[in-house]
Give the backbone structure.
Amino acid sequence: MTVNNALDTSLHYRDHFPVFDSVTYINSCSQGALSYEVRAAMNHYMNGMDDRGSLWDEWVMAQEGVRSALARAFKTSTTQVALTASASAGINSLMSAMDFSGKKNRIVTTGLEFPTMGQISHAQELRGAQVIHVPSEADNTLDLKKVDAELNDSTALLAITHVCYRNGAMTDIKSAIKLAHSKGIPVLVDAYQSGGSLPNQLR
Ligand SMILES: Cc1ncc(COP(=O)(O)O)c(C=O)c1O
């Protein structure tokens, strides 16, 4: 997408977010700007609870629609998409499903992570995990050579963010994934700040 196209797109959507009329709002998180469409969907859900009680079929189908839309956005199949209540809940589901009781017990993560990535990693210590934090550099970037140095036979997981929530630093995530996969190590990518902003492809 060219800069002009991106600007056109953002101008098109700008009117959907009433908060932009009164403040410059750049908080991209669970308290992100609320659109008219999201408010309408929430009202629809609440009104349905009042009018008809359980709306299981309608909302399960709505969720399936979201899964399909996400699969298209991330260029993958719907079967590869699971919806969770939050990014942290997703990270927790994945990490708590892993076995850290054996020799492969190291979780390698970085100094650019959202706090819950670190907290959920450390929670796995109760189940035998050892957590290694690769610090970021003075300019807020990550030195992939330092990440690579921590990826060894005992590493169970590389848990790494694409774009840092704190400073916007972007990691060359393809190279990071390549390094880990070349050693047979699975990668958990937190693409919270890049999903929808940058092209991302899941396979
Ligand atoms: C990079 C990143 N990861 C994870 C999270 C946590 O998201 P959630 O509140 O959905 O758990 C955030 C929230 O801002 C984030 O910026």
